[in-house]
Amino acid sequence: MREFDYYRAGSVRDAAKKLAAAGNPMLLAGGMTLLPALKMRLNEPSALIDLAGIDELKGVRLGRKAARVGATTTHAEVSGNVELRAAIPALSQAAESIGDPQVRNRGTLGGSLANNDPAADYPAVALGLGATVITNKRKIAADEFFKGMFETALRSGELVTEVLFPLPQRAGYAKFPNPATRYALAGVCVAQFKSGARVAVTGAGTSVHRLKDFEEALNEDFSPGALEGLSVSAASMNDDMHASAEYRAHLVGVMARRAVRMALG
Fold first, then answer.
1. CA–CA separation, 265 and 257 (whole Å)
2. Which end of the chain is less enclosed by CB atoms within 10 A, N or C?
């Protein structure tokens, strides 16, 4: 780990100001991905700007049509919020499946989305629910936010402040975890709205993505049986020491049907 400056921001405005002033800064939320990367010198920032002390970035606010979750709200807080679990069970299901208790009590929603790990859980839920990522400068629809492996639409000087999740009629999230890391070998979020169904996949490919043919099938019949016979191409799946592309393609179908069953209760 190389030397860097450390700043503890007192507000979003303060963090943005320090972000603009530093030469090669990085934001520190929970640090579950960033700190190991620093130790391995995969990231070498000139400064770390700690967001942990900014109260306006924390907490859950539930409205009639949507839930607002602050960027530094931890996975444990998301999974443990009773009202949020009742309104959007898929979000709580994803949060409680992340890592272990230590990770869930330090890792944050905003940090996970900004990092966009291809096997992380929150990106699938954000995309599946049609969430809006709110930054200190603008609002970004989830369909436009995730650009590729570890790549998002965030610009220089921009930080996530909260995420707006529309309340679905019903939604579920299911994943097949890597037994060592708990990252998803394949995870699927399924949601039903008046406007139609949304299906998003994480872990199986190079980045989170939607399955349009699965959505069309669920628009006709929101049931696990509607997905029988549908498949995804192994050509677009990851193929590594943890699972073959063919196995991941199979898992996507299994997890999608399981997510529908969870949504139906």
1. 13
2. C
